[in-house]
Write a structure and sequence with these properties.
The protein is an alpha+beta fold and about 120 residues long. Helix content is about 25%, strand content about 20%. It has a single domain, classed as HIT family, subunit A. A hairpin with a 3-residue loop joins strand 1 and strand 2. Helix 2 crosses helix 3. The structure holds guanosine-5'-monophosphate (5GP) and zinc ion.
């Protein structure tokens, strides 16, 4: 069923604490943890605890939880003190855009200069 945990999903396993992660924030609906392969001094993933394959499908089904993810992205930036210098929130969507994990997630990137447009 939509939103239910998927046994073959890495991020569902992190939510279930079956795979370890460096968790920095947790709410009833979201989890935030450091990316295993950081691309910036701050590189945190904010995910909904429910499983949807990408941000658009999450937003269509769960607009409130989508707002929670965005709110937590801002809190992560404040916690890591990158809110003053600026940070980026990215949802890679589709393999052509670099998505490799099919559980919706926001990348929060900061702590260095970020080029625009991104590569
Ligand atoms: P995507 O490429 O789908 O936008 O982002 C997936 C992200 O998950 C990548 O940045 C990748 O480094 C990260 N990642 C993959 N496996 C793990 C893991 O086991 N633990 C953590 N913390 N991050 C992971
Ligand atoms: Zn999942």
């Amino acid at each position: 069923m939509a939103g239910e945990p998927q046994s073959d999903c890495l991020f569902c396993k992190i939510v279930a604490r079956e795979v370890p992660a460096t968790i920095v924030r947790e709410t009833e609906t979201t989890l935030a943890f450091r990316d295993i392969n950081p691309q910036a001094p701050t590189h945190v993933l904010v995910i909904p605890k429910v499983h949807y394959p990408d941000a658009a499908s999450l937003a269509a089904a769960e607009p409130g939880i989508t707002a929670d993810v965005l709110h937590e992205a801002g809190e992560v930036a404040a916690d890591d003190k990158v809110d003053g210098s600026g940070y980026r929130v990215v949802f890679n969507t589709g393999s052509g855009a670099g998505q490799t994990v099919w559980h919706a997630h926001a990348h929060v990137l900061g702590g260095r200069g970020l080029e625009w447009p991104p590569g």
